[in-house]
Specification:
The protein is built from six helices and no strands. The chain is mainly α.
């Protein structure tokens, strides 16, 4: 009985890990397809929204469906959070009540801050 329980317990993390990898691959595929769609519609706006350089946007825009599938199949998440400081998180989540009464104003302020950081990075 103990051997079966131990085997089942050992299999559980493997199943959870495999599920996590499947979800990462799905997220990668969705992100790449969205990025490519945005780039093909308006490359400048896509660069801004995605935080991409012109070279990266051109590369993503030119990928074939087979190349997208190959890139998406890795075990590393391709997208990342661009919000890296408490001020922007507080503005986006409206976490500190009383600072700004209007949630829309908070989001606008956060967008302006993030846009400035994208410009600095490019």
């Amino acid at each position: 009985m103990t051997a079966i329980t131990t085997q089942t317990a050992a299999a559980a993390p493997s199943i959870a890990s495999e599920q996590l990898l499947t979800e990462i691959r799905e997220a990668n595929l969705t992100y790449l397809m969205l990025a490519q769609s945005l780039i093909r519609q308006d490359q400048a706006a896509a660069q801004f929204r995605l935080g991409l350089t012109e070279e990266a946007a051109e590369l993503l825009g030119a990928l074939s469906p087979a190349q997208i599938m190959k890139v998406a199949s890795g075990n590393m998440l391709l997208c990342r959070f661009r919000v890296e400081d408490d001020l922007v998180w507080d503005l986006l989540t409206n976490h500190k009540p009383g600072k700004v009464a209007n949630a829309e104003t908070s989001r606008l302020h956060a967008s302006i801050l993030m846009a400035g950081r994208v410009t600095e990075a490019l």
